Amino acid sequence: MSSSRVIKSFRQLLNESKEQSRRRLVIEQIISAMSLGVNLSPLFADMVKAAQTTDLVQKKMIYLYICKYAEENKELLILSTGTFQRDCQSQDPLVRGLSLRSMSSLMNKELVEYMAREIKKGLMDRSNYVRRIAVLATVKLFRVSPELVLDTEIEKKLYSMIAEVDPYVSINSVVALNEILASKGGISITQKIIIHLLKRFHEFTHWGQSIVLGLVANYAPQSEQECLQILNLLDNYLKSGNTSVILSVSKVFINLINDLPNLRNQIYDRIKNPLITLVSCSGDEMAYPVLKHIYLIATQLPNLFANEASRFFIKGSDPTYLQEIKIDILCEIVNKQNFKQIIFALASYVINSSLNEHISSYCIRAIGKIASQLSSYFDMVIDYLMEFIELDIPHIVEASMIILKDVIRLFPEQSLEIVLPELKRLSEIIHTEEAKVSLIWILGEYGEKIDEGPYILEKFVETFSEESSEKIKLELLTSVLKMFFKRPPESKKMLGVILHEATENSNEPDVIDRGLFYYRLISTDINKTKSIVLSEKENFTRFTENDPLELFEILMDEFNTFSVVYKKPYEQFKRIIHKNEEEEEEEDDDSSTDSSSFSEEELLDQIQQNVNGLDINQQNQSQSQNQQNSQEEQEIELEPKFNLEPSEFQNKWMNSSHNLNFDFELDEELDKESFEEILKENNFQVMASGLIQSTIKIFCYGKDISSNQIGLFQLLITGVNVKLNAKGTNPQFLKLFAEYIATVLTE
Amino acid sequence: MIKSLFILNTGGDIVLEKHWQGRTGRNIITQFWKEITKENRTKDLPPIVRIRRQTIVHLRKYNLLYLIVADQDTSPLLFIEFLNRVIEVFSNFFSTEPTETSLKENLPKAFELLGEMMDNVFPVTTETSMLRDMIGATMKSTPNTIENSKKFGTLSSDQVGGLPWRRKNIKHSPNEIFFDVIESINATIERSGKCLSSEIISKIVCESKLSGMPTLTMVFNNSSILEDVSFHQCINLDTWERRKILDFVPPDGAFELLSYRSNRMQTQIPLYTSGRFNWSKKKRKGKFEIILQVRNSLIKSIDNVSVLIPLVRGCSSPAIKTSNGAVFFNDQTFELKWEIKKMPKNNEISMKGSIKLPNKGEIPREKPVAIITFSIEGLCMSGLKVTNLNISKLKKKIFKGVKFISKSGNFTLKF
């Protein structure tokens, strides 16, 4: 059915139906069709006319319609203002509220004058229900014309309305002010407001409570006694029936730890059980973010959950995302007491055929990770890995060999004793690519320690020409070369064969290249080649895949937000809205009214997005090139009396487009005070500093005189190791800036 | 903050969309749908995902997919909690589960509800009993005009001091309130019958039909059982903290009063289970035996017992003897199910037999597990008892009652 025919028939129905119950039915049909995606915009004038009904149900539906199509019918919208205004005078508070809410949702610039007038009246309305709606309408008005709200009587009125008896009005005023004043850091949180809100905390709905808790989390109590008062008052709410309230209370508690460090363990103990209860009592969707938070806490306090390991054992009915996070938690809370229990559980998941392949590989990786943390038990881990390999199930063998390789890299001496005698047998039973690559690497690195080492490699070389995997070929080339230098008599022939095969009979350019490279290397200087190939390797103790510790510190600051779920600080994923993106979104809407053109629309959209993305990249590139040229010979010199307000600093820190990490070492250890002194001497401004365990953390900034660029940075100093994280708007400047900081500190 | 809500059917079509701030294009939904239906997905899509730099929180219920497009940095729990509320409120107002059909029939009402549940970008009123004030549940059949709307639209919370979860002037006849204490036991049992781990997850649900603003107090014999507890908002937390009694003004209608978790058991696990299962390589068969017995100490009867054993693909020809009950084998899902309507007292019952493995393929390394379900009326495993239930501020005659049900949660026997 084409939409023009639909519209015609609806219009006819609207005109014909006189009886209220029938009209209501027609309008219901219109709303249903609208939500199916049929474009009913042309009915606008008819619907505005119909809005003069006295039937509240019809009115609600018609207002819903008007809000949806207002954008496309700007010129007709003025017709509806009469109805809106009349309804704002109605006897019935439900009608007044509805009218106010709908009108303020129109987001129309032409109507702001009407809106502002009705909102002001609404704020004084005798009905709480209308006042509630009027308060939130101020936010909508603010979005269209901020100047009508900011620093006006409305703002003042909102502050006074926090004290109202009706809990909804009170909470809505807080919400509204927080959003209106967002650019100034939200509502100004005074002790008076906090006390007022906490006193009547039980009156608020769960949502209201969550909002108040959000404020309390940002509030700095003025004394230890006040901290304790808040703690005691909110403690009960860890038993709330609403998970969002429980997590919000937890956040307040965690923030209070900074003021009450001696209560740290007790406070964490308080939030432990409610969190565990949430996991076992709520649905999968709820358990997921809660487990993410438990994981985060576990990274900070591994022992807190150590006795609860069995709570994080996985069930066959768990969705994969829950299984993953539970395994992550098990890796964090493992200690000497629960080690066996956890490893045993993980090993049983590996071979449990009802769990999917992804999870069994995930468990094997987890086992490897635990081995790296608790080195004294690595032999048990190796036993398990060897067992898995013998199962001859491709994905398990694959994952186990890779982990086996890593464990050997971590603990070469001890683990080789167990693994080396098994290498020959392993070489006969493994088939998959990655597993073979790992085995060949082990052979190249340590194969000379066993008699048959070169011969196992030789077996692989024999089938080199039939090998289809480029990865295996490359690894084999390297390993054979290493073996040649360690066991020349047995390997000489094999090296000849493989170099010949690689350079003469291979099709893969990389294999040919590497073959030729080795060939030339050997023919140039065989002793040098040896020293290159067998160069001493650095011992390592931590996998680079492991997350950096400071990440979790940042995440603790962002407790109870999406950052914890994504395991990323907010600034890394927050949505930066570009001008053209917003337009693009609006275009989405126009076309979205007709659902039939889905795929085409999507395609166009994607193309557009790609094109836009390209342009931006190119621009950025050329820009930075220009700046590079102009800045190449410059030295940094900082303005001595440059000053940023804390909020400005924070704003810049969160919003700077470029980020640079830079690690360096100091010649000698210094204390916090000396660092600050050095920085100040060089015209850096210290924003904040602190000591977390033995790590010194300093936030600093400076402004370069010649380029007028501002750079912000954070220093994390542990002993002589310094981690620098600098931020700014220009990548070239940032690099110079970071180098300059490093020079200042090392000299 | 919640920008938009979409509800999709099993085919990915949008059944309902509601926008609270600006408008979210449908493209993001198309892309999300692609994500969630990706073939060969080895991982389920987590309930919180990022698509096109926006956050989508979603959950599935009654074959509908609810998703919220969220912006800004707020509590993820809030969104999931809100979705759960939406589903709950829909069920209450539609008087049936919100399925695609019932949602389509009730679309205008759904929009009306969503309009009141959230304003601006934050949830406001999500309690069914409060929403009834704003949305006449009976409107559909008897049209209310604005003139006579005062009859239903008196907005009780306008009267100072109203509670967020209960409106004033509720009238019922007869007046009655019933509580169900439902305890589910999660346990893993070894083949010898030894219990490896167990916990009890419980809740008290209530159906309240009381007039006015009644205050209830509930006293327990042993309140220390309620250590890991989460309460409905109506419960006065201070009284609980000080005197360990529940003091509350209940919402109207059905609601969950509290839920709790407990590791301690007053009694033994009421149903004793043991068994063995072995794969015989030679005969390519699985041989097994399961024994069940009611614990002597148990006075109540155990009903609706079933033992489910999921077997490997291709198993066939079960040969089974049982002392009681009936055995079914599903050759599509390869599940063996033993059902006993009522457990006999005093003597043990058993199921014994074998099952054939397919002729080809390996002998499974893993033994299956048996998933056991049962229910016991009148029993409370944690030992919780209500010693006193008092209703004040209500003069009329009140029918009240507390019922206990114990049942299996995740109850498995490992061979």
Automatic annotation (TrEMBL), chain A:
<dbReference type="InterPro" id="IPR016024">
    <property type="entry name" value="ARM-type_fold"/>
</dbReference>
<keyword id="KW-0813">Transport</keyword>
<keyword id="KW-0472">Membrane</keyword>
<dbReference type="InterPro" id="IPR002553">
    <property type="entry name" value="Clathrin/coatomer_adapt-like_N"/>
</dbReference>
<dbReference type="Pfam" id="PF01602">
    <property type="entry name" value="Adaptin_N"/>
</dbReference>
<dbReference type="Pfam" id="PF09066">
    <property type="entry name" value="B2-adapt-app_C"/>
</dbReference>
<dbReference type="InterPro" id="IPR026739">
    <property type="entry name" value="AP_beta"/>
</dbReference>
<dbReference type="InterPro" id="IPR015151">
    <property type="entry name" value="B-adaptin_app_sub_C"/>
</dbReference>
<dbReference type="InterPro" id="IPR012295">
    <property type="entry name" value="TBP_dom_sf"/>
</dbReference>
<feature type="domain" description="Beta-adaptin appendage C-terminal subdomain">
    <location>
        <begin position="640"/>
        <end position="745"/>
    </location>
</feature>
<dbReference type="InterPro" id="IPR016342">
    <property type="entry name" value="AP_complex_bsu_1_2_4"/>
</dbReference>
<feature type="compositionally biased region" description="Acidic residues">
    <location>
        <begin position="582"/>
        <end position="592"/>
    </location>
</feature>
<keyword id="KW-0653">Protein transport</keyword>
<feature type="region of interest" description="Disordered">
    <location>
        <begin position="578"/>
        <end position="601"/>
    </location>
</feature>
<dbReference type="InterPro" id="IPR011989">
    <property type="entry name" value="ARM-like"/>
</dbReference>
<feature type="domain" description="Clathrin/coatomer adaptor adaptin-like N-terminal">
    <location>
        <begin position="5"/>
        <end position="524"/>
    </location>
</feature>
<comment type="similarity">
    <text>Belongs to the adaptor complexes large subunit family.</text>
</comment>
<protein>
    <recommendedName>
        <fullName>AP complex subunit beta</fullName>
    </recommendedName>
</protein>
UniProtKB/TrEMBL annotation, chain B:
<comment type="similarity">
    <text>Belongs to the adaptor complexes medium subunit family.</text>
</comment>
<dbReference type="InterPro" id="IPR022775">
    <property type="entry name" value="AP_mu_sigma_su"/>
</dbReference>
<keyword id="KW-0472">Membrane</keyword>
<dbReference type="Pfam" id="PF00928">
    <property type="entry name" value="Adap_comp_sub"/>
</dbReference>
<dbReference type="InterPro" id="IPR011012">
    <property type="entry name" value="Longin-like_dom_sf"/>
</dbReference>
<feature type="domain" description="MHD">
    <location>
        <begin position="174"/>
        <end position="414"/>
    </location>
</feature>
<dbReference type="InterPro" id="IPR050431">
    <property type="entry name" value="Adaptor_comp_med_subunit"/>
</dbReference>
<dbReference type="InterPro" id="IPR028565">
    <property type="entry name" value="MHD"/>
</dbReference>
<dbReference type="Pfam" id="PF01217">
    <property type="entry name" value="Clat_adaptor_s"/>
</dbReference>
<dbReference type="InterPro" id="IPR036168">
    <property type="entry name" value="AP2_Mu_C_sf"/>
</dbReference>
<keyword id="KW-0813">Transport</keyword>
<keyword id="KW-0653">Protein transport</keyword>
<dbReference type="InterPro" id="IPR001392">
    <property type="entry name" value="Clathrin_mu"/>
</dbReference>
<protein>
    <submittedName>
        <fullName>Ap-3 complex subunit mu-2</fullName>
    </submittedName>
</protein>
